[in-house]
Amino acid sequence: MTWPSFGGMVATVLLAACSVTSAPAATSAPSSAPAMASLRSTDAPESGLPELISDHSFERPVQPRMDAAYRTGLVTDHCVDRDLPAPPVAEQALVVLDRTYALTASYVPNDLVTASEAGLSGTSGTKLVRAALLDDLAAMAAAWDAAGFTILIDSGYRSYAAQAATFGSWVARLGYVEALNRSARAGHSEHQLGTTLDLSSPGWGGRFGDWAVEAPEGAWMAAHGSEYGFVMSYPAGSQGDTCFSYEPWHYRWIGREAAAAHRASGLDLRRFLVRYAGR
Fold this sequence. Notes:
- The protein is α+β, with helices and mostly antiparallel strands.
- The chain has a single domain (57-275), classed as Muramoyl-pentapeptide Carboxypeptidase, domain 2 (2-Layer Sandwich), CATH 3.30.1380.
- Helices cover 27% and strands 9% of the residues.
- The protein is built from 9 helices and 8 strands.
């Protein structure tokens, strides 16, 4: 498939100051149990990591193009737990976060607003999201209403500190190794971007169940979320590449054009972002 080329800066990964061989690693056992994305976090990345993702205007992303130099610069064993700086990208919505690449503790989006500005009410309306996604969230919420659905936002933006506390609660409950299968360490959570939502619906009580199958609202999101720029980050059967358990409630906004390209690619989100970085 041929992708259109867009001008502008192509991100280049700079890993010289933080080599893979010197990075700390932890082993983790595979798990088939889905993890609550609202319960995700990590040990703090090294405090000296540079802030590689700028806080300039968060523009709506365009369809990304393949960039071999970017792709080959990334580590291949990304399921190893370490704290390398998130690879710099021209568009913040397309940054790669996984068990290796992380945001710094100081990263906070500069345009956080409440979801109420997109027309969400109740507890859902109190959740923080980036202003960049408000138009798409409002349009999606209108589509929910038209379909007769009430979809709730359980979690939006989550700070580095909040994620660290969440991961710590999983460690206390399950032990460190198993917690890695249930939760993202701080800095590695997509929620810190402010563009990721954990969703549910009033009639659905299976907090660790398959929302995309067990609830019509979840099935609607799986079928139509990408039309509004929202992509399921950790789909079923992708744990070998995403390194996280299936989370049918966890949706990340990457913009409508990028989401359409992602859907057409057939790739899980992480692999898509790695292969089609830059503009």
